[in-house]
Amino acid sequence: GAPGTNAWYRSNVQAATSASDSVSGLALLEYAIDGGLWTKYTSALTLADGIHTLSIRACDVAGNVIQKDQKAYADATTPLIKLSVNGTQGAGGWYVSDIQVSGAGSDAGSGLASFEYAVDNGLWFPYIIPLPYSEGQRNVKFRATDQAGNTTITPAQAYFVDKTPP
Known about the structure:
This protein is mainly β. The protein is 0% helix and 52% strand. Strands 8, 10, 11, 13, 14 and 15 form a six-stranded mixed β-sheet that branches.
């Protein structure tokens, strides 16, 4: 699969195996995924999003058996971001009160590693509390990164605040 971070893959995982026995010969090669039923191995396996245990078992003609287990971590799904604005909306997309811009990131796969924001194409900072804005225009982006290294970045959201009467 496509390597990610923290031992995760950022794609489905392809698993292939082989076995041989030079004395009595190989009688059976089989696999089980996540403790499921043993199945004869015939070709590479695809493991989708999640944490999986792949068990491989080989038996020779004499009856000797060996089993190996391998963990696979797959997360091909990018994190989700939800945004909200708290304030009094006026006309033409403007707010006529102070506003607070809130964001929340989530990831059902490997879990969220970081959630950040940037204002007016500036540096990224960890998001901790809603962002208060009082007057003028601001462009805000949010970025969520999961443990596998998948990243979602929102397009810049423009917020306009004008509390001053003409």
